[in-house]
Predict the 3D structure of the following.
Amino acid sequence: MRKNDMFFYLSRFLITVLISITFITLISFIILRPVSGTKENITKLDKSEIKSKNIPNVPIKNHEKNIKVKVYISQKRTVEEMDLEEYIKGVIAAEMPVEFNIEALKAQAVAARTYALAHIESEGGKRCSNVLNADLCNTTHCQVFMHKDERMKDWPKSKGEAYWRKIEDSVKETRSEVITYGGKVIKEPYYFAVSSGNTENASEVFSESIPYLKSVKSPGEESAQKYKTSISYSNNSLTNIINGYYPKSIPSSNSLKSNIKIKSRTEAGSVKELQLGKTTVSGVKFRSMLGLNSTNFSIVFNKNSVDIVCKGYGHGVGMSQWGANAMAKSNKNYKEILGHYYQGTKVEKL
């Protein structure tokens, strides 16, 4: 190889090496440089992400987003998708008298929103078990729901708009608020219409112990229309009903008094168990058999008939709606009301 050729190839080799080193250095700089911000900013971001994951049970990623809910409208046999907050308005309109104190309506809004989140599939909830492709139905199986125009038909025309604004205010002033226990959104924010003066332990009604659903006092409900009700059965009709469920439990209609005995009551005073001839049934089952307003009942035996006198209306677990209104009228706010009926819970924003 000639001297000039050697010089040419050596120069070419050195230029190639220099270009490679420059290229590698440039790529390293691009890959290894920080994407944005300082180390302190990245640490804050990590902490906020960890905090957002502690909301669990209902993994809402951003409380400002419009959460959608799919509701089965039984009258139309269709599923309607709507904003959660609009849905809550329809639940309050259907579930609680609008004449109630605004603090009671706000308590209802938070309880209803909490219940809904536990059933919205897209937010990690469990859908309505009665209807395909719907998170909730508009019946008592889930929560009763009514559209504004439907509800307005039952209100005086002169008060309709004012009533609806009251409902809108109760939802707006509690927006994104839910009931939590131990840092998690609760899944059983049960509520009912009227108590007998005390609410029930969940374990004595649903056979499941839930820490925030304990028996508490609920005074001031005596003015409720269904606080005390009575229903009468002829001896023959009551005998036939019981024997229809439990054949030959009652030998004859003349032996009702000797064959029906209340065996035990719950802490709140409701019937826990009663004897029907040789069969022992729960107060919950007996209520279902006869369509009674509650399990807090007494039995009066007459010559040819039996009177069953009930106190309260509903299953008795969680928040009493009339009790909530009584508390509101005693200057308790909605958070105090919810804290009373759902023991050990908090009201927090998602």
About this structure: The chain is about 40% helix and 20% strand. The first strand starts at residue 68 and ends at 73. Confidence is low (pLDDT under 50) at residues 1-10, 21-57.
